[in-house]
Amino acid sequence: MGVRRAVDMAVKAADSCSPVYSLGPVIHNPEVLSALESRGVLPINELEIPENLENCSVIVRAHGISPKTENKLRGMGCRIIDATCPKVKASQLKAEELAEAGYFIFLAGEAEHAEIKGILGYAKDGFCVTTECAEEAEREAALLYKKRGSVKTALLGQTTICEDEYSAASEAIKKYFPDLKIINTICAATADRQKSLRELLERTEAVVIAGGRESANTRRLLLIAQESGKPCVLAENAGEIPDSFKNFKTVGLCAGASTPDSVIDEIERELLRIC
Fold first, then answer.
1. Are 14 and 58 in contact (CB under 8 A)?
2. What is the value of pTM for the model shown?
3. pLDDT tens per residue, the chain (275 residues)?
C-alpha cells in the first residue's frame, strides 16, 4: 500500500505541475524509477540539495525524511508532497512521542537505510541507537545499563525487518531491560510475504525473488530463500533468470513489496517459457 501510494502521488504530481523532484528514490525499484524519470520526476540527493528549488515541487519518498530536512526544504520555498508510507510515518511519530516521554529507544534495522535515518530524526539526540542484529542490540543494551542503570526503554523496528530478527533483538535487550516496551512496527504486507515464501519453499525446488536490489524487503526475502539451502536468485527483470533454472520441475516466484506487477508478469512469462 505504501509504495503504490507513493508512486501514484509521484505520477499525479508529474501530470499536474513542473518541475518535480524526488528527494532520493521514491521507492527502491529501478523499473519504477526509470518510468517516473521519463515523466519528469527527477531525483535529487538529500546531501546535495540544490539551492534553486523555490516554487518547485519536491516529493518526500515512501521511506520518509527527518524533520530537519523537511524544515530545510520548506525554508527554501518549495512545495512538499509527502509520500511517506503511513506505516513509516506512524513509526516516526511514535519515536518522537517515546523520546519526549523519556524513553531510550532501540531502533532495529539497517543503519544506512533511508527509513531508519528518517525515524532517527524524530527522536531526541542521545535518546536513540540503531542496532542491525541481536548481538549489536545486546552490546548497546549492556553499554546503556552500565552508563545509566535502569531506565525506560522501547524497541522500534524498520517496517521491513524479519519477525525473527525483531524478536531476537528484543530478547537480547531484555537481558538488561526486562520491562522493554516493544512497539509492533513491522508492515503486515512484509510479514505476509515472508510467511508465504517459507510455505512456497516447502513446495518448490528453486525460487526467483522479483524486485530491486536496493529494496530492503526484497533483500530479506532473498535471505530467507538462501537460508533454505535451495537454489535462488534475485531478478530485477526476466533477463536475470539463470539458464540453470530450466532444469527444475518446480520453480517458485515471490516478489518484493515495491516490485511492479509488470515486472512480476514478465518474469512469470519467462519462467513458464523455460520450465
1. no
2. 0.83
3. 888 888 899 989 888 877 889 988 888 888 888 888 999 898 888 878 888 888 889 999 899 999 999 998 889 888 999 999 999 999 999 999 999 999 999 999 999 999 999 999 999 888 999 999 999 999 999 999 999 998 999 999 999 898 889 999 999 999 999 999 999 999 888 889 999 999 999 999 999 999 999 888 899 999 999 999 999 999 999 999 999 999 999 999 999 988 888 889 999 999 999 87
| Domains, the chain, with CATH or none | 2-84 (3.40.50.11270), 87-182 (3.40.1010.20), 189-274 (3.40.1010.20)
3-state secondary structure string across 214-226: CCHHHHHHHHHHH
- 199 part of the active site: no
Please identify which of the residues 115, 138, 140, 236 carries the catalytic annotation: 115
Q: How many CB atoms lie within 10 A of CB 3?
A: 25
